[in-house]
Amino acid sequence: MHKKVHVEYQKELFMFKQVSTIPLLLLQMYEVR
User: Fold this and answer.
1) What are phi and psi for residue 13, nearest 5 degrees?
2) Which pLDDT value is given to residue 1?
3) What confidence tens digit (pLDDT) does each residue in 1-33 have?
4) Local structure of 33: helix, strand or coil
5) Is the entire prediction scored with pTM above 0.90?
6) pLDDT for 31
7) Cα angle at 18 between 14 and 20, to 5 degrees?
8) Which residues of 2-33 are buried (b: 16+ CB within 10 A; e: fewer)?
9) Angstrom distance (rounded) from CA 5 to CA 17
10) Quick one: CA torsion of 10, 12, 13, 16, rounded to 10 degrees?
């Protein structure tokens, strides 16, 4: 039970990180040009 919750949390965290890195990458690309 606890382990499953932890895995779900990890997935959510991973998705959040990916979503939050996309704007940063776009920003960097924009800065480079």
Assistant:
1) -60, -45
2) 61
3) 678 888 899 999 998 888 888 888 888 888 876
4) coil
5) no
6) 82
7) 115
8) eeeeeeeeeeeeeeeeeeeeeeeeeeeeeeee
9) 18
10) 160
Tokens of 14: 């991973």
Task: Say how many residues make up the chain.
Answer: 33
- Residue 11: closest CA among 19, 21, 1, 26: 19
Q: Which residue range(s) make up the domain with 7?
A: 1-32
Question: What single-letter amino acid sits at 10?
Answer: Q
- How many structural domains comprise the chain? 1
Terminal C-alpha separation, the chain: 49
Q: Return the structure tokens found at 26.
A: 């776009």
